[in-house]
Write a structure and sequence with these properties.
Elements lengths: L2 E10 L3 E4 H4 L7 H8 L3 E4 L7 H15 L9 E5 L11 H7 L6 E5 L5 H14 L6 E7 L12 H4 L5 E10 L5 E9 L7 E2 L21 H4 L6 H5 L6 E2 L1 H22 L9 E4 L4 H10 L11 H4 L6 H11 L8 E8 L3 E8 L1
Parallel strand pairs: 4-5, 4-6, 11-12
Antiparallel strand pairs: 1-7, 2-3, 6-7, 8-13, 9-10, 12-13
Bound molecules: acetyl coenzyme *A (ACO).
Amino acid sequence: MPRSKIAGIGMYVPKNVVTNNDLKKYMDTSDEWIQERTGIKERRYADRTKETTATMGIEAAKIAIERAGITPQDIDFIVFATICPDYYFPGCGVLVQRAMKMKEVGALDVRDQCSGFIYALSTADQFIRTGMYKNILVVASEKHSFGLDFSTRGRNITVIFGDGAGAVVLQPTDDENRGILSTHLHCDGNNAEILAMYNPGTHANYWTNGNKLADFNEAEIGEMFMSHAMIDHAQNFPNMDGPTVFKIAVEKFPEVIMEALNANNYQTSDLRLLIPHQANLRISQFVQKKLRLTDEQVYNNIQKYGNTTAASIPIALCEAYEMGKIKEGDLVCLAAFGSGFTWASALLKW
Ligand code: ACO
């Protein structure tokens, strides 16, 4: 059975740089608070009217496809990961197929938040291993800036997120020294509401475990997907219990990285590069310390781009590759943790 290799990689970030001080125009915050808690100095925001999650993904995909030495017409399957889709439905995959004039291939949209890219990569990897497809485009893209609470009420979340996209082309390889060695996917739905955007949704303000989300009267709730009351309660914005996310993230990141290494009989010292999902620089630093990895073994760029959710890993991987930090045959681990909670890792030989 062949393995899959990353044959091409690309990234796209919007031109518009937004510094921590720029955010002070909208909310009560400071550069010191943001840098101290998250490590973020600036992030990119998409052009409000010209760029969408799909268009940014397409820009990254063009580069990945070109670097793979193929054309969009050679792609035989698309997997697209995002939490900021252009439309509630259909997903972004079909918009990529249309815009890039691809054949009438399948398109799958993945909803696994910060772990989305690894879930997407793992899915594509299975299709390559079974021989079903030969050129799979995996895209992860997020336009967070369109859906954040820019008032002081939302400051604990809004300052963290940024926009951007990354993409890879997966192809089969018989080379023993290259390719995706294994992927490891997990979730624990017990904390589904700890980091979530509640609306639009079909829960009518009761979580699936029967607990009430907020005190609305029946008239306010109605039977609507989205109501004025929901907007008044900021349920159309992401909601996060930051300290709980931090606590579980620093437990699950090392666990899933070690799972990948152990499954392939490698040790942390064998790792050329760990690319953690860029959740928060403090989380990455904690993980690095716990695994006793050197600074050279971990790549972080959240300082420049903020947290771009599913897109953060392919953006960081692409940047590390372009900087010459990864060479053919190097052992690279991708690891993510996010809303759901979901967490995942992928171990690959570049
Ligand atoms: N600027 C200034 N003050 C702020 C801001 C802000 N942007 N945000 C919150 N504060 C204030 C709060 O209002 C609070 O003030 P108070 O004490 O007067 O009530 C104080 O700072 C502390 O608030 P906390 O929410 O307790 O802040 P905490 O110290 O926990 O830091 C943070 C928040 C950075 C989110 C932290 O919990 C954290 O790092 N969590 C990890 C979660 C994370 O990184 N998520 C990333 C996205 S999810 C993912 O990718 C997995």
